Amino acid sequence: MIAATLDLSAYDRVTAYGDRPLAPASGLEYFPRPQDVAGSVAAAMGRLGMDADQVALAAGVDVYWVRSLMEQELSDLRDARRVFAVLGIRTVTYPREMVAYSL
Hints:
Elements (H helix, E strand, L loop, with lengths): L33 H15 L3 H8 L3 H8 L6 H11 L11 H4 L1
Helix pairs in contact: 2-3, 2-4
Organism: Bifidobacterium cuniculi
Protein name: XRE family transcriptional regulator
């Protein structure tokens, strides 16, 4: 087994990403509010021609969670990710410090 020790003392939560290029990415959405999530879920369902029951069945979750996402309410993270996967919504979770780099 090979072991390596990294000295990260020179970095804090922001400077660790300081040398990353700032290139805008296309086709990305940022969901800072539940309303933003609800709009994307509804749009994806319309694009795929699926209703809440069909999405829930395909995702293997209770239809309650799909409706919760559509009604701008809180949802279980695991079930929300399953719904997103069925709808083709790829999710990435960034630390707060990385949000500026991801937009």
